[in-house]
Amino acid sequence: MIFLSNRQFFLILLLICISSMKLIGQSYNALFIGNSYTYVNNLPQLVSNIATSFGDTLNYDNSTPGGATFNAHSTNSTTLAKISQQQ
Questions:
Q1: pLDDT, position 78
Q2: Is the Cβ–Cβ distance between 79 and 85 less than 8 Å?
Q3: Cα distance between residue 11 and residue 74, in whole Å
Q4: Beta-carbon contacts of residue 77 (< 8 Å; ≥ 6 apart)
Q5: Residue 10 lies in a domain
Q6: Is residue 3 part of a domain?
Q7: Residue-by-residue pLDDT tens, the chain, 87 positions
Q8: Which end of the chain is more exposed for a tag (fewer CB within 10 A), N or C?
Q9: For residue 21, is it within any domain?
Q10: Which residues contact 27 (CB under 8 A, 6 or more apart)?
């Protein structure tokens, strides 16, 4: 019969939980709304890479015209169409 200390039991339980979480990757959808800072620095891909490193998937689209402000996006037909395409 094998006897485990409380610490050993806890570590084994923790390893099982962590390994099972890694197997269950989530998929997320995101719309990045910004301007050239978002586009040039490739923020959507950077965030996607972070999600991938956690075992998740990020499907993204963006609306990032140069110099756009929040007010400009509120009347931009491309941005509004992309927002209305998703739930």
A1: 93
A2: no
A3: 51
A4: none
A5: no
A6: no
A7: 566 676 766 677 766 766 655 557 889 999 999 998 888 888 999 999 999 998 999 999 999 999 999 899 999 999 999 999 987
A8: N
A9: no
A10: 56, 57, 58, 59
Q: Provide CB contacts within 8 A for 39, sequence distance 6+.
A: 62, 64, 66
Evaluate whether 44 touches 30 at the Cβ level (below 8 Å): yes
* Concatenated DSSP letters of 21-79: HHHS--EEEEEEE--HHHHHTTHHHHHHHHHHHTT-EEEEEEE--TT--HHHHTT-HHH
Which one-letter DSSP state was computed for residue 80? H
Q: Which domain holds residue 65?
A: 26-85
Single pTM value for the model: 0.67
Overall domain count for the chain: 1
- Residue 28 pLDDT: 92
- The predicted structure's pLDDT at residue 9: 66
pLDDT at 38: 86
Contact 57, 25 (CB under 8 A): yes
Secondary structure letter of residue 1 according to DSSP: -
